[in-house]
Amino acid sequence: MSGFRHIRAFAACAAVLAATATAPAAVAAPDPLARFHGQYVDWHACALGPDDELGQRLDAAGADCADITVPLDYAHPGGRTLTVAISRLKATDTAHRVGPLLLNDGGPAGPSLHMPLTKSEVMGEVADRYDLIGMDPRFVGRSTPLDCGWDLGSAFLRSAGADLVAYRQEVAVARDLAGRCKRAHGDVLPYVTTRNTARDMDVVRAALGEETISYLGYSYGSYLGEVYTQLFPGRTDRMVLDGVNSPEYYNQTLLRGAEAANEAALRAWASWAAARHATYRLGATRGEVLATVNHILDAAAQQPLRIGEAYLLDEHVLPALFIGGLGSDLDERRADLARTVRLLARAADREPVEPPHKLAQQLELLLTAAGSAPSSQMTAIICGDVAERRGVGSYWRAVEKSRERFPLAGPLAGNITPCEFWDRPAEAPTVLDNDVPALLVNATGDPRTLYAGAEAMRERWPSSRLLTVEGARQHGLYGEYGNACVDERVNAYLRTGRLPAHDLTCDA
Question: I need a surface site. Which of 32, 136, 191, 252 has the fewest CB within 10 A?
Fold first, then answer.
């Protein structure tokens, strides 16, 4: 009515009445995604065959599965399509049903089809109020696949090495991996992005016939949730982000900015191992344990460590084993790292060693083509989101600058990645300018998604609340840390939809 503000009231009323009587009703613009939003969801058994352990577990729990059709390119929805695999564990408390709770396990490129099984355990009776939805993001898991055909599985979390010669090897590896991916999948790489995964989430929402979804995302999954809220305002109900990855900390080297937290986690683990020297024989003091770690790293720089008959572990891949073991301060996880370091110390002394099954699986994924698909997918998502051309020399300068303070994490966090040789992202990174009532969960010593990132999101979203675990060096808390305080607080929010009146703290 603003066009009538300067006309006399009587004339305005007459005009409005006349328009109402004669003008045709406004016609809504057609939905360009109508065929995706209104698609029939063909629910079926999850097991794909007699060897499909995950599918059998989902079937045994009463879950069902489906493949949702989505466009490759949302700007041209009439073109090529993909499928996104989802699983569902239906709500049984229909009198108190909230709706779908979409689950993401992080990554990037983390399959999440299994999550209705794991999250229903920690949710208890609260799970009965939700349709728990696991979703493998586009090109991940059982969704339309992507594999660049690499002969190694470690494209990210590779270390620059001890000297410039070693770093130049990394430049060659990164250039080769990027080239292989572009040759194999250059037509789809622009669409392997977080923003498109968020758009897929909204197609899933619509196909399920829901106005809104609730969401639980871990680590990178928290960033995915943030992007979804920006692209689709008003379409989220209850949101829990655990291990909060704020946009300013989401970068193409993943660990950039987290060097200090990882070195602190290493020192804390070394103190733990020193207190158990009789068991692990890594050193009776923290300094002695760290000296053992340095001995292993130095030996690998001189000559790769032989692990069993199949694996040679060099200075570029070895640090990832340490960093991977520092994501939790639970005794069980610290013991796993201690046993691995004991074996690596023997290998550094050039003794013959045989890897236990779990370590062999890790090495298989890091060192062989068995890890090509997940590494390809992670690389494509990160490079599709935030690739930047900096020049190969800039990475080496960053590594050298950080090495003295952060001898383990610096050469990892500052190293070159295939993103340096990737095409620039088709879309700019998402800028958040919204306010979402969410429950943010983070440990103060999280070495992956820094507590500072959770604080930044709390400030950006004034309607949110921050649940802090003081003193923990743990990545992933709800249902993963055994902390009753965290689990009860999150369940209370999921049960009632009411955020706490103020920020909360739990002890480690």
Answer: 32
Q: Are 380 and 185 in contact (CB under 8 A)?
A: yes
Report pLDDT digits (tens) over 38-72: 999 999 999 999 999 999 999 999 999 999 999 99
The tokens describing 294, both together, are 């340095």
Cβ–Cβ < 8 Å for 141, 113:
yes
Interatomic CA distance for residues 499 and 465, integer angstroms: 7
**Cα separation, 380 vs 392, whole angstroms:** 19
Phi-psi region of 341 (alpha: psi -120 to 50; beta: other; left: phi over 0): alpha
pTM: predicted TM-score of the whole model, two decimal places: 0.93
Domain residue ranges of the chain, discontinuous segments joined by +? 34-147+189-252+431-507, 164-171+258-421
Please check whether the domain covering 34-147+189-252+431-507 is classified as CATH 3.30.1330.40.
no
**Sequence-distant contacts of 40-48: CB under 8 A, at least 24 apart:** 41/66, 41/68, 41/207, 41/208, 42/66, 42/67, 43/88, 46/87, 46/113
> H/E element holding 505?
strand 504-507
**How long is the chain?**
508
pLDDT tens digits for range 235-293? 999 999 999 999 998 988 888 999 999 999 999 999 999 999 999 999 999 999 999 99
Please tell me the distance from the alpha carbon of residue 457 to that of residue 379, in angstroms, as a whole number.
25
In 293-321, which positions are buried (b, 16+ CB within 10 angstroms) versus exposed (e)? Answer: beebbebbbeebbebeeebebbbbbbbbb
Copy the structure tokens of residue 264.
């602190």
Residue 26: pLDDT band (50, 70, 90) is low
